[in-house]
Amino acid sequence: MIVAIDGPSGSGKSSVSRAVATALGVGFLDTGAMYRALTWWCLDSGIDLDDRDAVAQAATRMPLEQGYDPDAPTVAVAGRDITAEIRTTEVSTRVSAVATNVLVRPVLQQRQREAMAAIAAETGGVVAEGRDITTVVAPDADVRILLTASEEARLRRRSAELHGTTDDAAVEATRDQIVRRDREDSTVSQFTVAADGVVTVDTSDLDFDGSVAAVLAVVRRATTPAR
Ligand SMILES: Nc1ncnc2c1ncn2[C@@H]1O[C@H](COP(=O)(O)OP(=O)(O)O)[C@@H](O)[C@H]1O
Ligand SMILES: Nc1ccn([C@H]2C[C@H](O)[C@@H](COP(=O)(O)OP(=O)(O)O)O2)c(=O)n1
C-alpha cells in the first residue's frame, strides 16, 4: 500500500498524512523534512546555500536518519536529533534555496524512493508526502492525491499553528512562508494542478477530521477491487 500525497504549504499534507498512515497501520515519510534537514546541515556546517555543487554533494553525503512512526516522526543527522531545529523560521525561510537546486533534487528524490521502499518493507506500506511524490518520486504509487486548500485557509492554518492566532498581523507574518515559498518551489515541481490519474482533495471547507476522512475515502476507493 503506497500512498503519495502532494500539495502546497499549509494544505495539511504532514498532519493529514500522519493520521492517514496511523489509520492504515503503515509508516510515514515527510520528504519536506529531508530538504529541511539538508538546509539545517549546510547552515550548521558552513556550506553556502548558493553554492549549488557543494549543497548537492552534501545531499549525497548527509548521514540522515528518519523515524517513520506517524505518531512521532523524527529526523536526525549524524546522530543528532534535529526534529525541532528543522522547523525554525531560519530553516523555513531558506529551505527553498535548497529545494530549487536542480542538482540536489535527483539526489534526494532517489533517497526518498529508497526510504519509501524500506518503510514499506518494514510496515507493509507507506504514506509519503511532499511536492513531487505523485509525479516524480512515486508516479506508480497505488494511491496518488493532491491535497489543496485556498490560500486564505492555508494562511489561517499556518498562522494559528505558528502564532496561536489568525489576526491580521499574524496572517501577514505568515505570508512569506506560504506564498513566497510556494512561488519559488513551484518553479521546480507542479503541485497546484493534479497530474493525470491524481485525485484532488480540497480541504478549504473541511476540518482536520473531515480531511483525514476524505483522504481515507480516496484510498479505500482506489484499493477496493471493482465488482
Ligand atoms: N483540514 C484542516 N482543517 C483545519 N486545520 C488543518 C487542516 N489540515 C491541517 N490543519 C492544520 O493546519 C496546520 C498546517 O498543516 P500541515 O499538515 O503542517 O500542512 P503542510 O504539511 O501541507 O504544510 C497544522 O496546524 C494542521 O493541524
Ligand atoms: N518533495 C518535496 C518536499 C518538499 N519540498 C520543498 C518545499 C518546501 O520549501 C520545503 C519544505 O517542505 P515542507 O513540506 O516541510 O514545507 P511546509 O512548511 O510543510 O509547507 O521543501 C520539495 O521541493 N519537494
TrEMBL record:
EC numbers: 2.7.4.25
Enzyme class: transferase
Binding site residues for ATP: 7-15
Domain spans labelled Cytidylate kinase: 3-220
GO biological-process terms attached to the record: pyrimidine nucleotide metabolic process
Pfam family, any one: Cytidylate_kin
GO terms for MF: ATP binding; CMP kinase activity; dCMP kinase activity
Protein keywords: ATP-binding, Cytoplasm, Kinase, Nucleotide-binding, Transferase
Residues of the signal peptide: none
Catalytic activity: CMP + ATP = CDP + ADP; dCMP + ATP = dCDP + ADP
One of the record's GO cellular component terms: cytoplasm
Gene3D superfamilies in the cross-refs: P-loop containing nucleotide triphosphate hydrolases (3.40.50.300)
Subcellular location field: Cytoplasm
Similarity remark: Belongs to the cytidylate kinase family. Type 1 subfamily.
Protein's recorded name: Cytidylate kinase
Organism ancestry: Bacteria, Bacillati, Actinomycetota, Actinomycetes, Micrococcales
